[in-house]
Each structure stands twice: as C-alpha cells, then as structure tokens.
Amino acid sequence: MFEKLVDFIKSLYPTESPVPLNAPRFSGNEKKYLTDCIDTTYVSYVGEYVRRFEKAIQEFTGAKYAIAVSSGTAALHVALLLAEVGPGDEVITQPLTFVATANAISYCGGEPVFVDVERTTLGIDPGKLNEFLLNNGILKPDGRCYNTITGRKIAACVPMHTLGHPTRIDELIEICQKYHIPVVEDATEALGSFYKGQHTGTFGDMGILSFNGNKPVTTGGGGMIITNDEALATKAKHLTTTAKRPHPWEFVHDEVGYNYRLPNINAAVGCAQMECFAGVLENKRTTAQMYDPFFQEIGIPFITEPAHARSNYWLNAILLKDRRERDQFLAYATGEGIQTRPVWALISTLPMYRHCQCTPLETAPWLEERLVNIPSSVRI
Ligand SMILES: *Cc1c(COP(=O)(O)O)cnc(C)c1O
Question: Which atom of ligand 1 is nearest the CA belonging to 97?
C-alpha cells in the first residue's frame, strides 16, 4: 500500500527528487522587482513595495486594513498586545497548532488555555469552547470575562485555521462575543481560504497572515495583520514601526514600540507572488482533487475542506491507522525520497506549556498520532 502511495506522489512531481513537502515557487516578477529594489537602493524599510503588498492583501482578502510586519509570529504578538493581553491573563487557543501561536501569548505575559479541536475542521471545537466558558467563564462588572477557577481574565481567543482548512469561525466568534472575548484569528496557513464566502482572518477583531518560506505566499519571511477596525490598524502600524510620531526629521517615539517592519525587498517578492496567486490556488486545488479519489480507492482517509469552506489546501494530509502505521509510513516515504511530516506535537505537551489548563483532550491527541502531511507544492 505504501509503495502504491509513494509511486502516486512521484507521478505528481516527476521532475523533483527528493520530492519536497511544500517548496516555494518563483515563476513571476520576483527577480524583476528585486532588481528594482537594488537598482533604486530601496532595499530596507522605505519603498513602495510594502504599500503595494499591503494593498494587494487588502484587496484579495477584503479586509479594510492590512499592516505588513516581519513575521507571522510578530504579527500575532502585536495583535495580542492590541487586544490588551497582559501579564497573568489567559488566552484560549488550540493544542494542535504551530508553537508560535502559544509563544505569542507568552510574549505578552499571558498563558494559553487549550480547548480541544474537532475532526472535521481540525480547529477549536465550538461545542467544547462553549462548555468550557459555561463552566469556567463569568462576566464581571468591568465588562470582561474571568475564569472562575483561576480568577484570571480570559483576555482573548486565538483560533487557528489548521493546514488552511477554515474553522467554524462564525460560531466561535458568537460564543466569544457572549463573553466579551476578543478574537484574533491565526490565519497564517490560510491565505486563499474562505468560509461562507468570506476570507479567513477577516471575521475576528484581527487576523494574522504569515509569508515564511513554506506558506502559500512567501516573502522569504514576513507577516501581516488584517482588520476592519481603523483604530486597531492605526495602532498596529504605530507599534510595529517603533512607535515613531510622523515627522520629516525629528525622532519622537511615544511608547515602547517594536521594529517589526517588513523590508521592501521582502514585500517586493510578495507583490510578485500575489500576481500569480490565483493560479497557485487552482493548482493546489487540482492536486487535492487528484489525491482524493486515489486515497478513497486505497482506503486511507484524506482530509478535504469542511462544510461551507473553500480551502487553499496549503498542506495535504492523510490519517493513518495509529502511531505505529504513521511511523512506518514516515520511515518508508523518507527512504524513498518523499518528504512527509507528522503533524506538530501537541503544544500542551511541550515543557513550557505542560502546566497550562486544557479541556479534556480527545480529538487533538487522536489526530497527533495519525495525521501525516504529504507533498503539496505547486505542480510544475
Ligand atoms: C507559520 C505559522 C506561524 C508563524 O509564522 P512565521 O511567519 O513563521 O513567524 C504562526 N502560527 C501558525 C499556525 C503557523 O503555521
């Protein structure tokens, strides 16, 4: 069975050996725009490509505002600061995510609370979130939600659109609104993914995108905060650009800001990538449509987009029988020159987060043992 699977993957990527999991592709104006940056000397924090890239993301996602930053992690950090997450606060997220989601909470002095995910979306289970807040959340006279057991403020919720598959974000937000909990959507894997016709990352108070090397659009490294809230957008720009008051020559900074700016050369690559993005999405969707019937035939569950969602199919994934079969497959595929990866170890099991609160975890550990990502690069 593994042999058939490896042959099939090789047939999708006949020119690549080994077959990478998700290689970046540069088939548009990347070189041209980079040359332009060097020729004009605008390689750093000043230059037109940053503004152009922000506009491209704004138009593509339908968000009113987009603020480019140096990484997805930096974007998460600043968004949580703007949601006023502070020392001692709790922030709800999922145990099945990349570590950056939880780390950004820590940077603000907050502590993650892990709510189990669901099988269909791989994201936070709305029923379990609701149950957690019913049992543990109470609105206090200051208008904020507190955890009745720890006494701490539940300052924000960070759902993640896992592997590009949209969560049931509307339901999650409805629950959070009842408890006055701001929502920061970790859409770092979900550029090009829509839920009920609306782009992921535009439902919550803020949404986060990432452009690192393996993301659907790459700038080498980079990130973006998207929002429909003008005040948040203004603050995000200010805080990520060292909190400098605009002035032609004076250096006046009015709070502790961050140098989280995206350099112009990175933004230049992003502009070129966005010009080709429609084709990228189509190509990735077709790949998923080739995988799906193949896996149906050999009887391995292949993860497809949830109801009401249009996924970018960032990383294709299958579910193997158990950890043993998973490890056998990973070893076999690696030996055959096919890059495959298990899903992340649950964040709630890592040494720095082991002590954090969790709802009873059933689905997340089940997925952790079985889920394997398989090659998903754009086919050339
Ligand atoms: C990629 C990713 C990030 C961080 O993005 P960087 O740009 O690498 O800092 C955060 N959260 C999730 C879920 C991611 O996949």
Answer: 13
Q: What is the pLDDT of residue 1?
A: 82
CA of 74 from ligand 1 middle (Å) equals 9
Q: Torsions phi, psi of 131, nearest 5?
A: -65, -45
In a domain, 41, yes or no: yes
* Lining residues, ligand 1, CB within 6 Å: 71-73, 97-98, 100-101, 160, 186, 188-189, 210, 212, 223
Per-residue model confidence as pLDDT tens digits over 334-359: 999 999 999 999 999 999 999 999 99
Counting from 1 in the atom list of ligand 1, the atom nearest the Cα of 212 is 7
Pairing type for strands 341-342 and 371-374 reads: antiparallel
Q: How far apart, in whole angstroms, are the C-alpha atoms of residue 201 and residue 209?
A: 8
Of 220, 248, 275, the one marking the end of a domain is 275
Q: Are residues 199 and 222 in the same domain?
A: yes
DSSP assignment string, 109-177: T-EEEE--B-TTTSSB-HHHHHHHHHHHEEE-TTS-EEETTT--BEEEEE-B-GGG----HHHHHHHHH
Claim to verify: residue 254 and residue 367 sit in the same structural domain: no
CATH number of the domain to which 322 belongs = 3.90.1150.10
For residue 118, which of 155, 165, 154 has the smallest C-alpha distance?
Answer: 165
Residue 219 confidence class, pLDDT cut points 50, 70, 90: very high
Q: Could you tell me the distance, in angstroms and rounded to a whole number, from the CA of residue 31 to the centre of ligand 1?
A: 25
Instruction: Mark whether 38 and 121 lie in a shared domain.
Output: yes
pTM for the full model? 0.97
Q: How far apart are CA 288 and CA 193, in angstroms?
A: 14
Q: How far is the CA of 102 from the centre of ligand 1 (A)?
A: 11
Q: Please, are residues 60 and 202 in contact by the beta-carbon 8 Å criterion? A: no
From 227, 256, 275, give the residue that closes a domain.
275
Its domain, for residue 243, covers: 30-275
State which of 22, 73, 124 you would mutate to test the pocket of ligand 1, scoring each by most atoms of that ligand within 8 A of its C-beta.
Answer: 73
**Atom 12 in ligand 1: residue holding the nearest Cα:** 98
Whether 380 maps to a domain, the answer reads no
| 3-state SS class at 241 | strand
Are residues 91 and 237 located together in one domain of the fold?
A: yes
For residues 198 and 62, the answer to whether their CB atoms sit within 8 Å is yes
Interatomic CA distance for residues 103 and 76, integer angstroms: 9
